[in-house]
Amino acid sequence: MSSKVVSSLREAIQKVGLRDGMTISFHHHLRNGDYVLNLVMEEIAALGIRDLTVNASSLFDIHIPLCEHIRSQTVTRLQTNYMSSGIGAIISQGILKAPVQFRTHGGRARDIALGHTPIDVAFIAAPTSDPMGNLTGKTGKSACGSLGYAYPDAIYAKKVIVITDHLVPYPLQGWSIPEIYVDYVVTVDAIGNPNGIISGTTQLTRDPVALVMAGYAAQVIENSGLLRDGFSFQTGAGGASVAAAKYLKDIMLQKNIRGSFGLGGITGYMVDMLQAGCFQSLMDVQCFDLKAAESIRSDPRHQEISALQYAAPGCRSAAVDSLDVVILGATEIDTEFNVNVHTDSNGYIIGGSGGHSDAAACAKLCMIIAPMFRTRRPIILDHVTCISTPGRDVDVLVTQGGIAVNPKNEALRQRLADAGLPVVDIHELKEKTERITGVPKIPPKGSRPVAEVISRDGALLDSIFEVPAR
Amino acid sequence: MFRSMLFLPGNTPKMLINANYFGADAVIFDLEDAVSPAEKDAARILVANILRDLDFCRCTKIVRINAIDTDDWKLDLDRILPRQPDLIMLPKASQPQDVLLLDEYLLAAERHSGRSPGIIALIETALGIENAYLIASASERVRALFLGAEDLAATLRCKRTKSGQEIAYARQRLVNAARAAGIDVYDTPFTDVNDDAGLSEDTAYAKSLGFTGKAAISPRQLQIINRVFSPSPDEIQYAQEVMEAIALAKEQGRGVVALRGRMIDAPVAAQAQQVLDAANRQGIKTEVLV
């Protein structure tokens, strides 16, 4: 039987003809347990290839060795949707000459599909693959569940190399990405550290402030007019967001509401909602915990979707286009409801949009949950440090001290006020917070941009500037 | 009258700055057991600043000072009183003289500033339980008794249990003493913050004994306590029917009032009025529930 398995990663890199100036890509389902990006970059550096563009759907602190490849000019351009704070702090110091391009999950998929950001070689970390490259994330010792973000890379890259630590006989049953897109398969001892790939369980937060906000969030949804049969919902893996899902489940069961689908990155709490009958289906682009990974493996109602189907603008349709409510976080929000999820208040990169802006732009109700202050810092400002999601796409801000509704959605404000919820003007909420925290000084901004925030439709939304080393 | 009172350690700034957002009817800023001796001074400053800076709206501000057999209680009051707390909780109140000593200090402060807070007597010794009525009626400034079961169990030399049989006598004696003195009475916290069912049962039991409300040691306990101590829609509806029946009988010149086959006498009418008063305090729109 024929096989695409080659003897080493180096051989695969040589066979696809990777050379100076090309673009390579990675997906992030192995999260902070991913070994693949570092393995590949070490091999490429050893081959002396330089001036590469790395297009990674997200970067975590396990990828900090990438910074050395940047310093040595092996990598000279970076495109990503999210960067965690450790690697973000280094990038924020301006080690790249060209600014990092931040996209949204949907925007990245779209730009790859349209050829705006062509990929020469995609490296797909596969928890299970057969010798021809039929692959899945649902099984294997490094199982991570959905491989949604890897689809556009696999489909549109000129060459695709699959790296797996679990090779099974052909044909793999129940593949996610089929062999038609794959050029070579490489086996390694381990593609990731299971402890960093997905957490055991997403625990319900015990933080009392988060629970207060979650209670308000569920009540906002209950009184939004959108919670009815056929309801669709997306929420993140943050403490308040998960707790809001739990409270929402209680309301849906109490009122016997049968929703349509849960979307996005999926936690065990969304699985609970599916199993309780709150949804008919989950559309999963990424599993956040073991319960979600087990569910997508065993429950046909829990479906894997690609980043394209999840959120890509310009597709004939994407799932976010049918979304009723999304709950999202913020590191900062301003009085125009612009949201920052890219930087902290000192300007250091600590995140990225991911699917934030995609879901916000499309959902009928976009809710931001954020505390009024974190340690000494107020969250509501006159102007956010960086615009990640524009205020026009945000409907409501939920804090422990009250609920601020964007004036563009007066009908929602009225509904929530009529329901007896503590609706306040966002300026009033800001003043209330500043009475405790004071008004923070705005930290000095460097003159050189280290990153560009590109909106989901391709326009430049904002820039992030160089900051001094911590 | 508070359904719930939330204890917050006086040395936890993250909790303190959110004190007014948790949904407690009253917050007890603790300068006593929750604060180690080395941190007393910092906690006083922190609590004083919180009292000054936070908008508490309808949330009542209580400060638990250190016991009067320590050197700290006057330092606590000197720092706290200018920030005008609503109530001072006096720990280990065991005899009327304890209350009178605090009362005297507060009176001096009142002469100076024109106003001073009331007292909640925390009864947590065997002697305090026996003297409960005398303590409750020692001063007009005493607004409520509060049962502290953990310390009490230590003085009784018994183990605290979830079922609370060891404090049954103390609970009933305190309720009786407080009601005899015409003041409120609050139940001890339920200390297992992860046992919602146990909390619900313990709270319902306290309510059935006549307690005004119950303390919480975690914000996560407040929802259950508030729910149990709020009048239910059925209770409100019945209370409204009672008042309507009384009004109708009066209109028709009848002396005897009956509802659902039961005679409505003065105690039933009084209880109905208490339910409606509680509903109004909690902002429940009674008219739409009819």
Describe it.
The complex is a heterodimer of chains A (470) and B (290). Chain A is an alpha/beta fold. Chain A has helices at residues 9-16, 36-46, 66-71, 85-91, 105-113, 150-156, 194-197, 208-222, 239-254, 268-275, 290-298, 307-311, 356-362, 410-418, 426-437, and strands spanning 5-6, 23-26, 52-56, 75-80, 100-102, 121-126, 128-129, 135-136, 159-164, 184-187, 232-235, 261-266, 281-287, 302-304, 325-328, 332-334, 339-340, 365-369, 373-374, 377-378, 380-381, 396-399, 402-405, 449-454, 460-465. In chain A, strands 1-10-9-6-2-3-4-5-24-25 form a ten-stranded mixed β-sheet, sandwiched between helices. In chain A, a hairpin with a 2-residue loop joins strand 19 and strand 20. Chain A is globular. With 290 residues, chain B is an alpha/beta fold. Chain B folds into two domains: 4-229, Phosphoenolpyruvate-binding domains (TIM Barrel); 233-289, no CATH class. Chain B has helices at 13-16, 40-53, 72-80, 96-113, 126-130, 132-136, 149-156, 168-181, 196-209, 222-229, 233-251, 266-281; strands at 4-9, 26-30, 60-64, 87-90, 118-123, 142-147, 184-187, 213-216, 258-259, 262-263. In chain B, strand 7, helix 9 and strand 8 form a beta-alpha-beta unit. Chains A and B meet through helix 8 and helix 15 of A and loops of B.
Number of helices of chain A: 15
Indicate how many domains the architecture of chain A comprises. Answer: 2
Give the strand line-up of the largest sheet of chain B: 1-2-3-4-5-6-7-8
Q: What is the CATH architecture assignment of the largest domain in chain B?
A: Alpha-Beta Barrel
Q: What fraction, in percent, of the residue positions of chain A are helical?
A: 25-40%
Unreliable sequence segments of chain A:
none
CATH topology term of the largest domain in chain A: Glutaconate Coenzyme A-transferase
Mean pLDDT of chain B: 92
Distance between the termini of chain A: 56 Å
Poorly predicted regions of chain B: 286-290
